[in-house]
Amino acid sequence: MPDDSILIALTLIAIIVSAVIDRRKTLMGLRRGGKMLLNLLPQFLMLLVIVSVLLTFVPREAIVSGLGKQSGGLGVIVAAGIGSVALVPGPIVYPLAGMLVENGMSWTVISVFITTLMMVGILTFPVEKAYLGLRLAALRNILFFFGALIIGVLVGSVL
Predict the structure, then answer these.
(1) Could you give the CA distance from residue 129 to residue 107 in angstroms, rounded to a whole number?
(2) What digits encode the pLDDT tens for the residues 45-59?
(3) What's the number of domains the chain is made of?
(4) d(Cα 153, Cα 157) in Å, to the nearest integer?
(5) Which H/E stretch holds residue 59?
(6) pTM of the entire structure?
């Protein structure tokens, strides 16, 4: 993984190149990005507080035994269930996953959690049902749920 300073430098170079090409569009894009960041900030901070409190009060050993490498299939199923129900925006998920990996959660569990979070929607099912119909919405969620499990096993076997 690249050093943060390299990513920051590359981002600044890309912004400068974009500004040279079209200053107006670059400023418009920066404003939109800033607004998106401000809209996500309350959710991100709340999730950060919740995870920090959880990590403070729940012993690290409990997290590792429940969702770590030793948790086996049960940890994967728990992560898939939580990911299927939770509504967390993508930009917030990745820092959260990083914190959980640092605290001993296995890559298999993390990948299943992220994949189900992004692809399976229990809470959004009524909206999907309205637009796609019951059969297609259910089929989509079921296939993506099992797809997430397969992805988790593949990631776990590679990492």
Answers:
(1) 32
(2) 877 777 777 767 777
(3) 2
(4) 6
(5) none
(6) 0.67
